């Protein structure tokens, strides 16, 4: 049997300071690696007003690494969110670690909403947080207040042979934000705003390297009409991607079942798909492009817990796109013919992504 190695960005270890985005609060939290009075490594999370929480970092030797001796400032963010920040900070500093040990819930109640297993270490019980599960939890990265959760209500509207459930409205405001240790930058997504972003969308679509794949060069009026039609379509919404707040890319996130892709495979109700382009030439290059692939796939899995697959349909001849996909957990299922191109059906399974791709 071939053992699949984790697909990881090149990240420096033992970073001095990292930055984190809680799903429940606007603004960054900084986590600094410092030391206790007796010299043990300690992670300190700070926001406006000073230190909010801290924990001692335990390097792993004959057992997984861990965190202990948690301390919280009264009135700080919800304890579970603060523990999640410290857990992410520890995983960032130890990209090879697949598991992190926490005190048992009697000592740290928040451990009960993060851990899925227990371990006995030096005669004591510890709860274990698996990396592949931690990054599926909605405690960080995706801003919860900017999304609407919908139950699975069957609709009679849509393609007759592929009726989807009722879809939620497009989210508002910042959707997702994550600081990337390998780049030292924050990546974020927000929905495109037709009036605010029309000039930028028009400029990017008329760039020859973009038009070669998108075939959407045209006037501002034509692009305004394109975005207006998209606003009226619940199966898709456009997104501006930014690095440190600077617009860099445009993506379209769609529900695959009622999309043009739906008839070409056995689509499930919550399969998601995406198209994308890098509009800002300052942000071209493989490290940043791989960061987009990892982050947008992460967002789509976070956005809907029932999503088991993220799919794409790039040109079958687009070797660079296929290479990026294979480095971020996607596999080519087949090639097929759209009316306008020969496409490759790329598919990323939830289990594969969180098991093999290191965020």
Automatic annotation (TrEMBL):
One of its GO terms (molecular function) is N-acyltransferase activity. The keyword Transferase applies. Coiled coil: none annotated. Pathway: Siderophore biosynthesis. One of its GO terms (biological process) is siderophore biosynthetic process. It comes from the Bacteria. Keywords: Transferase. Residues 190-237 form the Acyltransferase MbtK/IucB-like conserved domain. This is Acetyltransferase.
């Amino acid at each position: 049997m071939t053992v699949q190695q984790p697909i990881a960005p090149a990240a420096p270890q033992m970073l001095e300071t990292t930055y984190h985005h809680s799903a429940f609060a606007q603004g960054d939290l900084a986590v600094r690696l410092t030391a206790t009075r007796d010299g043990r490594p300690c992670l300190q999370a700070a926001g406006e007003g000073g230190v909010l929480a801290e924990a001692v970092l335990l390097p792993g030797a004959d057992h997984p690494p861990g965190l202990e001796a948690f301390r919280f400032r009264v009135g700080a963010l919800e304890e579970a969110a603060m523990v999640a920040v410290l857990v992410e900070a520890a995983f960032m500093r130890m990209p090879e670690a697949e598991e992190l040990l926490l005190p048992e819930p009697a000592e740290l109640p928040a451990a009960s909403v993060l851990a899925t297993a227990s371990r006995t270490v030096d005669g004591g019980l510890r709860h274990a947080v698996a990396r592949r599960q931690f990054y599926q939890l909605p405690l960080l990265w995706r801003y919860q207040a900017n999304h609407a959760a919908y139950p699975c209500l069957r609709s009679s509207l849509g393609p007759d042979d592929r009726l989807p459930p009722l879809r939620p409205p497009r989210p508002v405001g910042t959707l997702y934000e994550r600081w990337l240790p390998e780049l030292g930058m924050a990546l974020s997504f927000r929905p495109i705003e037709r009036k605010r972003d029309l000039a930028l969308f028009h400029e990017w679509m008329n760039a020859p390297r973009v038009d070669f794949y998108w075939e959407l060069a045209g006037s501002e009026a034509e692009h305004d009409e394109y975005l207006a039609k998209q606003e009226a379509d619940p199966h898709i919404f456009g997104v501006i991607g930014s690095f440190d707040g600077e617009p860099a890319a445009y993506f379209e996130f769609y529900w695959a079942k009622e999309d043009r892709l739906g008839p070409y495979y056995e689509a499930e109700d919550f399969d998601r798909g995406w198209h994308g382009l890098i509009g800002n030439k300052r942000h071209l290059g493989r490290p940043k492009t791989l960061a987009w692939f990892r982050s947008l796939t992460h967002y789509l899995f976070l956005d809907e817990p029932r999503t088991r697959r993220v799919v794409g349909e790039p040109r079958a001849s687009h070797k660079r796109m296929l290479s990026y996909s294979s480095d971020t957990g996607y596999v080519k299922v087949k090639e097929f013919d759209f009316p306008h191109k020969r496409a490759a059906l790329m598919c990323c399974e939830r289990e594969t992504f969180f098991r093999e791709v290191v965020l």
